[in-house]
Amino acid sequence: MSHSAEGAAHGSVKSYLIGFVLSVVLTAIPFWIVMTGNFSKATTFYSVIALAVVQIVVHLKYFLHLDFSVRGRMDTFAFLFTALIIVMVVGLSIWIIYSANAMMM
Q1: Which domain holds residue 19?
Q2: Which residue of 2, 60, 63, 85 shows the fewest CB atoms closer than 10 Å?
Q3: Domain check: are 18 and 61 in the same one?
Q4: Tens of pLDDT along 36-75?
Q5: Do 60 and 92 reside in the same domain of the chain?
Q6: Mean pLDDT of all residues belonging to the chain
Q7: 12 CB neighbour count, 10 Å cutoff
Q8: Number of domains forming the structure of the chain
Q9: How far, in Å, CA of 7 to CA of 1, rounded?
Q10: Which tens digits make up the pLDDT trace of 26-36?
Q11: pTM
Q12: Are 11 and 4 in contact (CB under 8 A)?
């Protein structure tokens, strides 16, 4: 791994290629599952969700270089805090809109 002047770690070509191949495979599998229709709706749904979560982890590791090493821990915590705030804002907004709609009916 090479490091910039600020000390931030950047990926190598090998790590980017690994991430790319994993991303393509993790996109092709759910596409195949949905297009063939050989599985039940529940199996299809849970397979797509599970592979989406795995793909998120692949993107975080290989493209955003987030990890729990001593050097990357603060970046990872900052990302997780940001994700938490976004989930809260979106989730609470949906809850407020649903509640307002229920009260208006």
Answers
A1: 10-65
A2: 2
A3: yes
A4: 999 999 999 999 999 999 999 999 889 988 887 887 888 8
A5: no
A6: 88
A7: 10
A8: 2
A9: 11
A10: 999 999 999 99
A11: 0.71
A12: no
